[in-house]
Amino acid sequence: MSVQPNLNMACGTAATVSEQPTSSLSLGGQLLVWSLRHGTMTARYQIDGTATAEHVYKSLGCPDAVPLLDVWIGLLPKVAYRPVLIRRVCFPTLGEDEYAILQCMRALQHADQRRALGALSQILAGPFSTSFCDAASAYVKAVTSAGLSFTGVDALRSVDQLRRTTL
Fold first, then answer.
1. How many angstroms separate the Cα of 5 from the Cα of each of 45, 69, 80, 123, 160?
2. Closest residue by Cα to residue 8 from 86, 67, 63
3. What is the tens place of the pLDDT at every residue in 12-66?
4. φ, ψ (nearest 5 deg) of residue 136
5. Given the DSSP bridges, would you call strands 9-11 and 84-86 parallel, antiparallel or unpaired?
6. Under 8 Å between Cβ of 43 and 4
7. Is the full-model pTM beyond 0.70?
8. Cα 48 to Cα 75: distance, rounded to the nearest angstrom
């Protein structure tokens, strides 16, 4: 992943309304949250996390999603009108911004751009929202073509467990 450090993307622990556990997410949802957190941390500490991301995505059958991930995750802090708070990889629950991004991806999975734009309204506005959704749509298509979903529950595996057992 080639996410560049940007002061607009912060690593935070702000509480969310739902405090949804990441373990309750589908595998696609867990992959999304892990990718956000991994990308933020590697950018923050100026570490090249590309090999790890490529390995995880290849193991899940969607290696073509990595460069698409780089596009939208790199775009996010540049077009957000406020700092986007992304939690640390080990944090067990979703933050509000992570939840909004997940809701956006879920809407895009169902080709509902209007709902996707609504999910992002606290982070992005105007034409930047549409550009972000266009970039994120390509990522969603690549992930879902591998049989992964951003909705539903898949408690049998987690991205972090897969990463730990295969590296």
1. 8, 15, 14, 18, 23
2. 86
3. 555 445 678 999 999 999 999 999 999 999 988 899 999 999 999 999 999 999 9
4. -70, -30
5. parallel
6. yes
7. yes
8. 18
